[in-house]
Amino acid sequence: MIKLALFAVGFFFLSIFQTSFLVHYSIYGRVLNIILVIVVLYNLFESRDKKTGIYIAILGGFFLDVFSNTFIGLNIIIMLLTSVAIKIGLKKYVRIPLAEKD
């Protein structure tokens, strides 16, 4: 619970930073989405069975939706689908020999 609260505060400040400051530093018209990078990295390095990454994806998508001019829920769906795809991909197709038990 405390982890989610810290991520909520962090995503709040990162989304403000991203929408107010990073907009001026675009590369080929695209701005770096820091929250998406954090969500992807967290889901990649989290244990396969834990669901905290999905909740963090919803939080990140919510804060991106609040500070954007697109439809409400679009970023939540994108982050949630990305998180679920990573979880399913890691569970079905990636085997780590040291993590598996005989």
TrEMBL record:
<protein>
    <recommendedName>
        <fullName>Rod shape-determining protein MreD</fullName>
    </recommendedName>
</protein>
<keyword id="KW-1133">Transmembrane helix</keyword>
<keyword id="KW-0812">Transmembrane</keyword>
<feature type="transmembrane region" description="Helical">
    <location>
        <begin position="28"/>
        <end position="45"/>
    </location>
</feature>
<keyword id="KW-0472">Membrane</keyword>
